[in-house]
Write a structure and sequence with these properties.
This protein is α/β, with parallel strands linked by helices. The chain is built from 7 helices and 10 strands.
Length: 229
């Protein structure tokens, strides 16, 4: 059974159909790349999955539960995380503090006060920082990070939130070649443990990471297959 299913999903903006009868199936642990020209509906597809915009028609199911009309925060708590093209981190806080905010689970003050939770959170925070190559920057303010490091911090915050399905919108935009390659290595480590859907225009990056490629055109699915296909 697919982890995520979109059946005949439509999204309209003032009569314009940004997504027009989209069908999509993504399996647990898969890394799916979503490609296509500007205006194909790729970002809107991510928006409707995470609840940022609502479908005008069709159905979205996650873990065989319908989430079509769920609010964005409800979708997030079900285990779907979204990374936008422009990073959204707390720039005045340190990297450690950003991760600590994201690690506040469950969502209650009293549940996060105990020393047991603090110890476990510190251990988990260190693991995530090592994974995204930010261990040396833990006590630096986020505003001091490079663009690539800021992108990695936002990904790390999604991992801290324990997102099972992670939606990425052009994660390598503005990165250097070295940062892009390092991001590809990170994504290849994450797949299997997490499920990723990545909207991307950099085809070299797609070749490094993609299991299955989905091509969108005019709000619809045009083709799917491996990078060779």
């Amino acid at each position: 059974m697919a982890l995520l299913e979109l059946d005949n999903v439509e999204v309209t903006f003032g009569g314009f159909r940004a997504v027009a009868g989209l069908d999509l199936r993504v399996n647990q642990g898969e890394l799916r790349c979503l490609i296509g020209p500007n205006g194909a509906g790729k970002t809107t597809a991510l928006d409707v999955i995470c609840g940022k915009v609502k479908a005008a028609a069709g159905e979205i199911r996650y873990r065989d539960r319908e989430i079509t009309r769920d609010e964005e925060y409800v979708v997030s708590r079900r285990g779907i995380g979204r990374k936008f093209q422009v990073p959204s981190v707390f720039r005045e806080l340190t990297v450690r503090e950003n991760l600590s905010v994201a690690l506040c689970r469950p969502h209650s003050v009293f549940a996060n006060l105990g020393s047991f939770h603090r110890g476990k959170k510190a251990e988990r925070l260190g693991e995530i920082a090592r994974l995204v190559s930010l261990s040396a920057e833990l006590d630096q303010p986020a505003r001091w990070l490079s663009h690539g490091q800021t992108q990695w911090l936002e990904i790390a915050m999604l991992l801290a939130q324990d997102a099972d399905l992670i939606l990425m919108d052009e994660p390598t935009a503005g990165m250097t070649a070295a940062e892009t390659h390092k991001t590809a290595e990170l994504f290849n480590q994450l797949k299997g443990r997490h499920t990723l859907i990545v909207v991307e225009h950099d085809m070299d990056f797609v070749r490094e990471i993609g299991d299955i490629i989905s091509v969108m055109q005019q709000g619809r699915m045009l083709a799917e297959g491996t990078i060779t296909e």
